[in-house]
Amino acid sequence: MHYSFTRLYGNKLFLFLETIFLFILPLVILKVHPSLYRFRTIAMIIALPYLVFVMKTVGISQKKLGLSLRNFLQSMRSLILPTILCIFIIFITFRYFPSIFDIHTLNSMRNILSITNPFLHVVFTYFIVSAPLQELLFRAFLTSRLQLVSQNKYFLIAYTSLIFMFIHLPLQNFFITIVALLLGILWEINFIKYRNIVSISLSHALIGGFFVYNLLLIQ
């Protein structure tokens, strides 16, 4: 049984069909109904049973997912400067060019703008839940799953970074989409080298949390 599932998940056609079902189809739905974007965290939580199923059937270990402190300091050292630089760019952009961060999707998500405490919202919904979930699904798991198809690092970097970029398309903001692609490349290279998702989740939470906090303030 284990061998059969390994062969299935190593099949390129199955990966193509899986990509359409898990990523392309939801993006099409969000294109038609952008207000559904508010439920993205719930959707990621719902996807966790599939993650566990694949892990069990093909033998993806916690070590492969990077769910440990192994290489944490080495990974974090290489992420400190890019993380600080991104936060600085976000600060400058919000201060002097806030119109760049006009997110059209928010027009159909007016409930988000009524948050009374943006800081607590960022800490509990983004820093603790959303950012780690994104990294677990779209970096740790996806990389491990793709390695059943190919060990080519350029394939892994391209595929995971494009998927990470695509999941930000519903925000309908060109600047955010490009930044998501660049950060996806940075974090995937780091993950392949150090295999530690904790440090990447922390970098993601700091950058994304700072962005969301400022976005809620200007709204």
Structural commentary:
By secondary structure, the protein is an all-alpha fold. The chain has one domain. It is 74% helix and 0% strand. It is built from nine helices and no strands. The longest helix has 29 residues. The model has no long low-confidence stretch (mean pLDDT 89).
Descriptive tags:
219 residues; 9 helices; mainly alpha
Q: Provide the low-confidence segments as ranges.
A: none
Q: In one word, what is the shape?
A: globular
Count of individual helical segments: 9
Largest sheet: none
| Pattern of helices and strands | HHHHHHHHH
Number of strands: 0
β-strand amount: under 5%
Termini gap: 52 Å
Quick synopsis:
The chain is mainly alpha-helical and 219 residues long.
Sequence-ordered SSE layout with sheet pairings:
Blueprint: H1 2-9, H2 12-32, H3 40-58, H4 62-65, H5 72-96, H6 118-146, H7 153-166, H8 174-194, H9 197-218
Helix pairs in contact: 3-6, 5-8, 5-9, 6-7, 6-9, 7-8
